[in-house]
Design goal:
The structure holds 2 protein chains of 2 kinds. Chain A is mainly alpha-helical. Helices cover 72% and strands 0% of the residues of chain A. Chain A has a single domain, classed as MetI-like (MetI-like fold, Orthogonal Bundle), CATH 1.10.3720.10. By secondary structure, chain B is of the alpha/beta class. The chains are: A mainly alpha, B alpha/beta.
């Protein structure tokens, strides 16, 4: 057996299969949410002739919802909201948390203490409870939802980034850069960030899953995405009555949430083991 | 007499990252008669520890003993069942590891850990085991043999912990003791104490030992036979005296040549008196704010252009802190640093780019001093762009010149630090500092983490660069022999203060500060019998605490004056050799007590 065969054999081994599977499912959902208008068979608001809570059929593979709309099209558009809003919120939370975390590590005790204690205070607020209060006060809109989710996860991301950056900051190559007279921006972006990017990406994936679940929970409680639009969580809520008839209308969005979050988790584990093996 | 230990054709295989098995020890054979000490010597990666562990019938995770015979006292370690193994490893063979600090459980009393092995095997009951342990503590020259076992690991010093581990290994009266670099992590002054204790115990008990080390000078004191290993193969083996005096193998010769006390660096004429390039006065710095733990205090230094100032001290003496203070990484809380006559701000952030460019630092750990995410070319190009604003083409040309200057091939520029060996990384580290074209190079233990041969090559390179570029250096090291070979002036630090500062000749001619005397006497020499010929300490260590401002060396000093140097700050005095020392003893007294012949340099090892 030559080495190429060995290597490809190892890449597709039983151990890495879940990782590839996760990646495939994540890519699938990304494509679905970007190309929703192109692939959805019907507009999300269109009523079909099948009637309400119809079972799966050729015209409506996932059945119809409580108003008789095509469930497949609604899941495709729902994924768009779920993936889009969660991704946006996670990007905000992680980039802010990362920048603040590295700053806390490199800027000395005063900045570090101020940021860390603030993060400690924020981390102690229960996310869902906090979200309920804010939505009750401000009403629900995409901006409020994204801001809310980003705010909820920024402190956790800060903690991870800070602990990573503190270790790297103690390395001699950072001391060399400092002795050279490099500015804070260079040290943060060129010396520290490249050495923590893998664990930060892992953390990003994990937080994305949390964001999906938080958004879905909010929508399920009626505080998230508002009708006539619906994300995956809202779809479950709308069609909750179908649960007694095992209607596909309630199963399809629930399965969609499950596949998305599990796939991201599989992918993260895979990144983690790849990192460990390096 | 048949050999107690017999190793024949030992092959140990390791599973690589690609899953393929590869031999890392290739057919190693040696034997040891009862009561003999055999040393396995080699640099990192030579397979010496792997071979030594095989004597315990053990192979590290990912490795296995593939072939060969390992016999201790007639028992083949390879055929033992898992059930028979604990008895074999306790009664027949025991092991003393390099890091005692990592081998003791910090949550248990020392005595309980020392006797655990032989109590579990039912060799002795608790009371008898304790009595035996106390006798061993006394034999190993541990202070307070009856009481020391009641302490916890963090309450004793590193040298004491290493001796306690030796006691643990000897509790079961093993037929063979395997010592794996037992003094490598210790300061040289402590190393001597531990070596003395080991030597004594080995002699008294007639123990058979396999001593693993990279340090030929240490091995020369301990071993009857030496086995030189390289790349998992035996290069040469024979009686210690023969290996030291008439080596037959080229590699053995290069090892002998690289021993710091024997290694000669090409000398450079000390520069004629000129205005100093770097001066410091009354430097004080502490960790945790101005009133925190003092790390260096009252340091004065003066460095001429092109000269080398050696700074020596043991771990915790503040020598690396001094490097950080000079570069502004740790701003001094008091005192001044002047570059070419101009006072500089204490913190690097407040210094001008030109000032920063002129002082460059090279760190000890090449692994952490190079950003693993940047290519070598990028690492070297950055100072060029930062200080001199060179364009891309110019940068690339200069990077190649720099690599050539430190004797590295051009293709290294494209590699990442992880692809290079330790010595190569240290050369890149050096090249990065040189890229700034500094006038002062601060070398913080640059050869300490390297194998002897590699370290000697880096030292030669430094001397050559000094001659070619005329760069001045502050050369920091814990190794007096290394410093003596390269420095014009020597500063000896103890507990954050300079106890002696003067020329290299002043250190060799004497008289010297008592710590300098101890340090010089502790550097192992490459001849048999050096350890036995050492003068024993004039006084035992004092247990008494010292007043804060008084001489920190007081408890260990064997020329101390009770009631004088432990209560009041010690004044500085200038000796006739020009050296400044911090000691209350007048020069005439030191001259007489230390046994210096007037005017002539003498050996530090006064005969008994």
């Amino acid at each position: 057996m030559n080495s190429t065969a060995l290597r490809t054999g190892r890449r597709w081994s039983f151990r890495t299969l879940p990782g590839w599977l996760g990646l495939a499912v994540v890519v699938f959902w990304m494509v679905v949410s970007v190309a929703a208008p192109l692939i959805a068979p019907h507009p999300p608001g269109a009523m079909l002739r099948e009637g309400m809570m119809a079972p799966a059929s050729a015209a409506a593979p996932f059945g119809t919802d409580f108003l008789g709309r095509d469930m497949l099209s609604r899941v495709i558009y729902g994924a768009r909201y779920t993936v889009g809003l969660s991704l946006l919120a996670t990007v905000l939370a992680c980039s802010l948390g990362c920048v603040l975390g590295i700053l806390a590590a490199v800027q000395g005790r005063v900045v570090d203490t101020a940021l860390s204690r603030t993060a400690d205070a924020l981390i102690s607020i229960p996310h869902l409870m906090f979200a309920l209060v804010i939505v009750a006060a401000l009403g629900s809109s995409f901006t409020v939802l994204v801001g809310l989710i980003a705010f909820s996860y920024v402190s956790g991301s800060f903690r991870i980034a800070r602990s990573l950056a503190v270790n790297i900051n103690a390395m001699d190559f950072v001391a060399v850069a400092r002795a050279r007279g490099e500015g804070t921006a260079y040290i943060v972006l060129q010396e520290i960030l490249p050495n923590m990017i893998l664990p930060v990406l892992t953390d990003f994936g994990l937080r994305f899953v949390f964001a999906v679940l938080l958004l879905s929970s909010l929508s399920f409680l009626g505080l998230g995405v508002q009708p006539p639009n619906a994300d995956l969580g809202a779809l479950v809520r709308e069609n909750i009555d179908g649960i007694y008839d095992a209607a596909p209308a309630v199963i399809a969005p629930a399965v969609a949430i499950a596949t998305l979050t599990i796939a991201v988790n599989l992918m993260i584990d895979w990144i983690g083991t790849r990192r460990a093996r390096r | 007499m048949s050999a107690l230990v017999e190793v024949q054709g030992l092959c140990i295989a390791a599973r690589g990252a690609d899953g393929a098995e590869k031999d890392i020890v290739h057919g190693v054979s040696f034997s040891a008669a009862r009561g003999e000490v055999v040393a396995l010597i080699g640099e990192s990666g030579s397979g010496k520890t792997t071979t030594a562990l095989a004597l315990l019938g053990y192979a590290r995770a990912g490795c296995r003993i593939r072939d060969g015979v390992v016999r201790v006292g007639g028992v083949d370690a390879r055929t033992l069942t898992a059930a028979a193994m604990p008895d074999f490893r306790g009664r027949r063979v025991s092991y003393i590891a390099q890091s005692a600090a990592a081998s003791f459980n910090p949550a248990q009393r020392l005595i309980d850990q020392v006797i655990e092995g032989c109590v579990i095997r039912g060799q002795l009951d608790r009371a008898a085991a304790r009595a035996k342990a106390v006798a061993l503590f006394a034999a190993l020259a541990l202070p307070d043999p009856a009481g020391i076992g009641q302490r916890y690991p963090h309450q004793v010093s590193g040298g004491q912990l290493q001796r306690l581990m030796a006691a643990m290994a000897l509790m079961t009266d093993p037929e063979l003791v395997v010592l794996d670099e037992p003094t490598t992590a210790l300061d040289v002054t402590t190393q001597v104490e531990v070596l003395r204790a080991f030597r004594q115990v080995v002699r008294d008990r007639g123990a058979t030992a396999v001593y693993v080390s990279h340090d030929l000078a240490v091995v020369a004191q301990m071993a009857d036979q030496i086995v030189v290993l390289r790349g998992g193969r035996v290069q040469e083996s024979g009686p210690t005296a023969r290996i030291l005096t008439a080596p037959q193998n080229d590699y053995t010769r290069s090892l002998l040549d690289a021993v710091p006390s024997a290694h000669t660096v090409p000398t450079v004429a000390a520069p004629a008196a000129a205005a100093p390039i770097l001066e410091a006065e009354g430097l004080y710095a502490s960790y945790g704010g101005p009133h925190g733990v003092p790390a260096v205090s009252d340091i004065r230094l003066r460095l001429l252009p092109g000269a080398v100032l050696g700074v020596i001290g043991e771990s915790g003496s503040g020598k690396s802190t001094l490097a950080r203070v000079l570069t502004g990484l740790l701003p001094a809380h008091a005192g001044s640093v002047r570059l070419a006559g101009t006072a500089m701000a204490p913190a690097a952030a407040q210094r001008t780019p030109e000032q920063l460019r002129q002082i460059q630092i090279v760190f000890q750990m090449a692994d952490t001093a190079l950003n693993p995410a940047h290519s070598i070319g990028r690492i070297l190009a950055r100072p060029l762009a930062f200080y001199r604003g060179l364009g891309r083409g110019q940068q690339q040309r200069r990077v190649l010149e720099l690599l050539d200057m430190v004797r590295l091939p051009a293709e290294v520029a494209k590699r990442l630090p992880g692809d290079l060996s330790g010595g190569q990384k240290q050369r890149v580290n050096l090249a990065r500092a040189l890229a700034a074209e500094p006038s002062v190079l601060i070398c913080d233990e640059v050869t300490s983490a390297l194998d002897t041969v590699v370290g000697a090559a880096v030292l030669d390179l430094l001397a050559e660069l000094r001659r070619a570029l005329g760069v001045a250096m502050v050369f920091i090291s814990h190794d007096l022999a290394t410093v003596r070979s390269i420095a014009d002036d020597v500063m000896i630090m103890y507990a954050g203060r300079a106890v002696q500062a003067g020329s290299r000749e002043a250190l060799a001619r004497g008289p010297v500060h008592p710590y300098a005397e101890l340090l010089a006497a502790s550097v192992p020499e490459l001849r048999q019998g050096w350890l036995d010929g050492l003068r024993p300490p004039r006084m035992q260590e004092a247990e008494r605490p010292v007043a804060k401002a008084a001489c920190a060396f007081f408890p260990r000093c064997d020329l101390r004056v009770e009631g004088l140097c432990d209560v009041a700050p010690t004044p500085e005095q200038t000796l006739s050799t020009g050296a400044v020392i911090r000691c209350v003893r007048p020069e005439a007294e030191l001259l007489q007590l230390q046994g210096w012949a007037a005017g002539a340099p003498v050996k530090q090892t006064a005969p008994n």
